[in-house]
Amino acid sequence: MDLKLAGKVAVITGSSKGIGRETAAVLTEEGAVVILTARNEESLQDAVQYIKDRTGRTVDYVTADVTNEADAKKVIAFAAEKYGHLDILINNAGSAFAENFENVSLDDWQNDLNLKLFGWIHMIHAALPELKKQGGAILNLTAVAGKTPPANTSPTSVSRAAGLALTNTLSKDLAPYNIRVNAVCIGLIRSGQIERRWQAEAPEQSWEDYARDPKFNIPLGRIGDTREAANVISFLVSDAASYVTGTAVNIDGGSAPSL
């Protein structure tokens, strides 16, 4: 299927590693112009090289902290000034701070909301003037815990639930401008965090054996790969999904108890 992404301009936050970096690679393979952004310049440079090795193309990057409104505006201004338009915004920057409610400080709450909720808000506010010119797509990455929060997951599951509500309301507010807004809810996907857990729990096992351990209770029988997540994200921001908005797709191998 031709996703018709050639020439589309996409900004991806938190794209120096993991799913963000892999999504950037897939979009680049599909012909999109991709702008990476994250806080660490060295990691961004590594991501640029990774994508060049994969695709033969060089992508741009802007060092930025999405919790800072001025930085968010800087990223979008770079895209608009260099390429004249913006078609896709993917909000991927985030972290997973999970604890029992009684152990979470007010600073912990504020830091989590600043990154996972207000980071989205800053980027969307900055991007809207460009997206409204010709329509486009916003894709927010969150976690299945945002739909069905388990115990001891404050503040992260609460921030993610707020992000899902934001996604749904924005899909209605922005539909008149032909701006689609969707989310993906990530389950267990191979990442630096998961690999560290593997090395701490079972360094004697191969990754393949560890990823298929029944303790993870994944119906498809294994931990997912970043490429699998990136493929779904790329579809949702493409014209192939032109009638999809206001939804949150689970990418979790069937493990979430919610739809």
UniProtKB/TrEMBL annotation:
GO terms for molecular function: diacetyl reductase ((S)-acetoin forming) (NAD+) activity. It comes from the Bacteria. Keywords: Oxidoreductase. It catalyses: (S)-acetoin + NAD(+) = diacetyl + NADH + H(+). InterPro entries: NAD(P)-bd_dom_sf (IPR036291), SDR (IPR050259), SDR_fam (IPR002347). GO terms for biological process: bile acid metabolic process. Its EC number is 1.1.1.304. Pfam families: adh_short_C2. Transmembrane segments: none annotated. PANTHER family: 3-OXOACYL-(ACYL-CARRIER-PROTEIN) REDUCTASE (PTHR42879), NADPH-DEPENDENT REDUCTASE BACG (PTHR42879:SF6). Belongs to the short-chain dehydrogenases/reductases (SDR) family. Catalyzes the irreversible reduction of 2,3-butanediol to (S)-acetoin in the presence of NADH. This is Diacetyl reductase [(S)-acetoin forming]. It comes from Macrococcus equipercicus. The lineage of its organism: Bacteria, Bacillati, Bacillota, Bacilli, Bacillales.
